[in-house]
Design the sequence.
């Protein structure tokens, strides 16, 4: 399959046909018209395939890409292999891009040749969580603090035209394809369904090339955070997802980040941690987290070892 568009947009989807239809409708309304949408589906997911077929019948810029293997990383890899445009973007099926989204991304790439990747805010549409849905502007996005904590503020707006970062969120990220075309998305990570840190291999390739990653003020999307088809409870410290999260967190640090950054970040993870990656301090006041903490520490150590071994890949 060949596409002569300026940018290919990869949209993985699995058994959320109504939500997907909203996403594709929004993409069809883009002011920038020289694009194609590669919707990655499973062969047995007839509902999703029917939605894509209905859009493709009306607009040749929409196409189906089939993937046999389950999981987000496999879907992203399938779309990336088919993409042939100068740029490749990624978004989720539960996101809706405003009409100016692609125009903003392409304009930014044109104005900043040193930029190898563009991302933007995913504005969370959560009426029951007003703090998350209406966050204050962020000063730092997708970078590590001195003591190693990631500023995961990708859902926040920013006041500057753009901020430099080292990590983007999969719901809203675009790349110069020549920098990521040979990347295996999710290489080395654990968790087939929705692997935490899936985006790291793409962002790591951009950083390794010497290019910059920009988080752009006006390149935002609306994110409706639809329920997942698989059970991957992010807040349960005993869940497989949470343990994979701990492994992937350490793996990404030690494979893609400077050694000193990785060391500080891992120490923060071990000493403080988070709700689904409990460290020593969080475990002191929570019996459930305390009993799960040793398993998370072991997962982090294994991730560190594998990440160090894969640094030269």
Sequence:
């Amino acid at each position: 399959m060949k596409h002569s568009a300026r940018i290919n947009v990869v949209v993985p989807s699995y058994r959320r046909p109504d939500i997907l239809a909203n996403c594709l409708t929004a993409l069809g309304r883009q002011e920038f018209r020289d694009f194609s949408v590669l919707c990655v589906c499973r062969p047995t997911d007839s509902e999703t395939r029917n939605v894509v077929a209905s859009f493709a019948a009306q607009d040749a810029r929409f196409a189906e890409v089939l993937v046999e293997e389950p999981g987000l990383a496999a879907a992203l890899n399938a779309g990336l292999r088919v993409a042939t445009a100068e740029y490749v973007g990624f978004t989720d099926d539960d996101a809706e891009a405003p009409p100016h989204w692609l125009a903003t991304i392409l304009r930014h790439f044109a104005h900043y040749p040193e930029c190898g990747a563009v991302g933007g805010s995913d504005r969370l549409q959560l009426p029951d969580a007003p703090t998350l849905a209406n966050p204050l502007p962020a000063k730092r996005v997708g970078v590590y603090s001195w003591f190693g904590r990631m500023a995961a503020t990708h859902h926040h707006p920013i006041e500057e035209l753009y901020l430099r970062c080292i990590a983007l969120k999969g719901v809203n990220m675009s790349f110069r394809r020549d920098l990521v075309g040979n990347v295996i998305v999710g290489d080395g990570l654990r968790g087939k369904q929705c692997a935490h840190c899936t985006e790291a291999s793409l962002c790591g390739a951009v950083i390794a090339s010497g290019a910059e990653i920009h988080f752009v003020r006006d390149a935002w999307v609306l994110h409706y955070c639809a329920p997942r088809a698989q059970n991957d409870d992010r807040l349960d410290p005993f869940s497989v997802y949470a343990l994979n999260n701990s492994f992937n967190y350490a793996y990404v640090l030690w494979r893609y980040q400077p050694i000193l950054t990785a060391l500080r970040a891992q120490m923060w993870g071990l000493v403080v941690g988070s709700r689904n990656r409990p460290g020593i301090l969080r475990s002191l006041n929570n019996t459930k987290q305390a009993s799960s903490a040793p398993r998370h520490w072991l997962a982090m150590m294994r991730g560190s070892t594998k990440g160090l071994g894969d640094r030269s890949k």
User: Anything to note?
Assistant: DSSP finds eleven helices and 13 strands in the chain.
